[in-house]
Amino acid sequence: MILPLLLLVASQQTATLPFTFRYEANRDLQSVSVAGTFNDWNKDATKLAAQGRLWSVTVPLAPGRIEYKFVLNGSEWIVDPKGKSQDDGNGNINSVMIIPPAGFDIPAHKGDGLITASALYADTTPSYLNYDRNKLGLSVRVRTDDVAEVDAVVNGKTLPMTDVGGDELYAKYHVDIPWDRNSDLSYGFSLTDGSAVRYFGPQGLTDTQAGNQYRLSAQSFHPFLVPDWPQQTVTYQIFPDRFANGDHDNDPPNVQPWNAKPTYSNRYGGDIAGIRQHLGYLKDLGIKAIYFNPIFSGPSNHRYETTDYFKIDPEFGTNAEFINLTHELKGDGIKVVLDGVFNHSATNFFAFDDILKKGSASAFTNWYFIKKYPVKVEDPPTTYEAWFNFPSLPKLNIVNPETTKYFLTIPEYWDTHADIAGWRLDAANEVASVYWPKFRNVVKEDGGQRWIIGEIWGDGTPWLHGDMFDSVMGYQFRAATLGFFADQKTTSTDYLKQLEKVYNSYPPQVSRNLMNLLGSHDTERFLTLCHGDKNLLMSAATVQLTWPGAPSIYYGDEIGMEGGRDPDNRKGMQWELAGDGNSILGHYKALIHARNSSRALQLGDPVVLATDDAKETLAFARVMDSDCAVTAVNRSKSAQEISIPLGRLPAVDQKGMYKDVLTGKTYQAQGGTLAVEVSAEGSCLLEPVRSGRRAA
Q1: Which helix (H) or strand (E) holds 151?
Q2: DSSP label of 273
Q3: Closest by alpha carbon to 616, among 479, 481, 495, 482?
Q4: Which element (helix H / strand E) includes 438?
Q5: Closest CA to 518 of 92, 94, 232, 90
Q6: Three-state helix/strand/coil letters over 576-614
Q7: Angle of helix 435-443 relative to helix 401-417, nearest 10 degrees?
Q8: In degrees rounded to 5, what are phi and psi of residue 283?
């Protein structure tokens, strides 16, 4: 009998192991908790108990790499004084530990005939069983350096699998097979090490294949579908108060000069009218979507404290103005993505305001996490739970049925009244995950083409199984790119390995719509991190605009704006830099327009072509059927010739001519190799010149 997919028994997941976190304080503390990758960085989820000044808690942890910090008195985040720490690539120093699974006490060696059974894992989520572009992707996890050969056995046919990367503990092997979704399949995995050949499937690790195979029903299989358009789109992020002030009649009383130094509270008067006045700039730039930071009414300049989710903040304009803007943008081929803040509200949001006035008699006490009455807004908050202990951001109890019902009407309202193409979800990892499938059901009523992006700074896999998000913000991409271009602590080889690792950690349709970015309202400006070196910024932009994903540009990065940590990264848009003589802007325009006209750059799979760590150079391609584009980068401070082998590209391109979109130079392949001269800290975007087809 062929079982439906959802009834398949997943392979044995590695069991959790008890681990004790300990913190020895040097002063009296009210509370200590631990937050990390194991609990979605929720500072309130895992609290330590005190015995004098020694705090501890024992929790079950899945083996693997764990990043964490201790949180003192609810707000002071510190690394473990007795642990190992490292930079996560986004400027955050976290404590790191590796918890080895059972069976890892014996060293792993390929060819010794020993296979570590506890490391083996496969399941029916899209990370291990995925359908994309008429192919079924199968993956299996094994211990790193443990197995000499891994094969998939599909309907009795043995297919070699490829190591697509991993970490200190695990390696992942993958294979794609054609599948028309009309026929049922049986599959399992064959593991060869030395003279040992064993089989892995729903029964675990066995000596024979008989009875140890998954059965996949074509009828009950439901693929993970994401919108078609994000992978073909360059998105532009606008912080509304700082983009342009087009209507002084709606300015706040304390509006600042446009070039004033930003603070946490000052306002510049940016508005909808200002955005409309600069639509020509955005269209000329070539962007096809705008991601707006919050636009709903709220007391702060960033509006992540929301007072009214159904009202455009009056300092930006009216509901009618915004709705008309979305219609106008749609007519210009530009989609709108809103920022959804559903983890917390403002203290003057009607439900919390009612609690402040009525206390325990309020009808909304279950909408929040109230600790005691009367509720008072004070710093630090002691009577209610707040996001990162900011008193102005009381945390919503989104799973309360009435709260859930209310908040689901928000996307329903805006998706109905305006042209909304997607939602970026703030603090998405801190919102109870049971809410997101309900949110997805509402948003996807358009036939599945609205885009859902979660703000996840690390691995987004738990939210990317097809029932919650389509994508996450590409902070993993940013961390790798910072390490290579700004910090220059990463070699060319390791940089591309990091990008490949992120790409291969998700289903390909997810990787093609990851919101890859160099910066955002939450980060230092990329140019500032490059110490003002515009060549490094432009080369990083070349990778961002040509690597798989849905690139997002933070307003002003394309003209070379600088800024340190928040709020310095939120200056007013420096329109005086947006002229034709700005080489950074010209570089961005050339990249975006090339991407908009290239099927390979929008849809293609990544292919690493060359790295030279001594020269600090690299080259990769995007390949889609017979279309391709080649990116070459030179990080060094002197011009370099990069020799690019073309054997992995379509046959017609292995001996043809290529044109650099960025410089106009042409290069002729010789003997299946392309020799390209790249300037110091420069980059090339090469497209094949074909008869009857424009190269750029």
Answers
A1: strand 149-154
A2: H
A3: 495
A4: helix 435-443
A5: 90
A6: HHCCCCCHHHHHHHHHHHHHHCCHHHHHCEEEEEEEECC
A7: 20
A8: -65, -40
Helix (H, G, I), strand (E, B) or coil at 484: helix
Q: Quote the tokens at residue 407.
A: 């908040």
- Burial tier of 196 (Cβ tally within 10 Å: 0-12, 13-18, 19+): middle
Buried b (16+ CB within 10 A) or exposed e, 493-508: eebbbbbbbbbbbbbb
In whole angstroms, what separates CA 19 from the centre of its chain?
A: 29
- What is the predicted pLDDT for the residue at 689? 92
C-alpha Rg value of the chain to the nearest Å: 26
Amino acid 96 reads: V
Q: Which of 114, 119, 83 is nearest to 100 (CA)?
A: 119
Q: Is the pTM of this model over 0.85?
A: yes
Q: How far apart are CA 49 and CA 80, in angstroms?
A: 16
Catalytic, out of 455, 627, 653, 660:
455
- Following DSSP, what letter does each residue of 490-513 receive, concatenated? S-HHHHHHHHHHHHHTS-HHHHTT
Question: What is d(CA 112, CA 116) in angstroms, rounded to the nearest whole number?
Answer: 11
519 C-beta neighbours (distance < 10 Å), count:
25
Q: Which pLDDT belongs to residue 1? A: 28
What's phi and psi for 423, nearest 5 deg?
-135, 125
For residue 276, is it left (φ>0), alpha (ψ between -120 and 50) or beta? alpha
Q: What is the pLDDT of residue 693?
A: 47
C-beta of residue 38 within 8 angstroms of C-beta of residue 69: no
CA distances from 247 to 37, 227, 244, 250, 463 (A): 45, 35, 9, 6, 40
Check residue 691 and give its pLDDT. 64
Tell me whether residue 353 is one of the annotated catalytic residues. Answer: no
CA 175, 227, 313, 345 torsion: positive or negative?
negative
CB 95 within 8 A of CB 83: yes
Spatial neighbors of 104 by CB under 8 A, at least 6 apart, are: 63, 116, 118, 119, 143, 169
Domains of the chain: 17-99 (2.60.40.10), 105-216 (2.60.40.10), 230-343+398-595 (3.20.20.80), 604-689 (2.60.40.1180)
In the residue annotation, 426 being an active-site residue is answered as yes
Residues contacting 422, CB < 8 A, separation 6+:
227, 230, 289, 291, 335, 336, 337, 338, 450, 451, 452, 453
**Residue 578: how many CB atoms within 10 A of its CB?**
17
H/E stretch holding 328: helix 319-331
> Given 313, 426, 557, 687, which residue is catalytic?
426
Indicate the DSSP class of residue 14: P
- Residues 477, 485: Cα–Cα separation, whole Å: 12
Regions of the chain where pLDDT drops below 70: 1-14, 89-91, 691-696
Strand-pair category, 640-645 with 605-612 = unpaired
What is residue 607's predicted lDDT score, i.e. its pLDDT?
97
Which residue matches tokens 């798989």? 548
* Predicted pLDDT at 652: 72
At 624, the amino acid letter reads: M
pLDDT attached to residue 215:
95
- 3-class SS of residue 620: strand
Alpha-carbon gap, residue 181 to 159, rounded angstroms: 19
Q: E strands within 400-496?
A: 422-425, 451-454, 471-474
- Which residue matches tokens 């290239």? 598
Q: Which residue do the tokens 């899945």 mark?
A: 62
Terminal-to-terminal C-alpha distance of the chain: 54
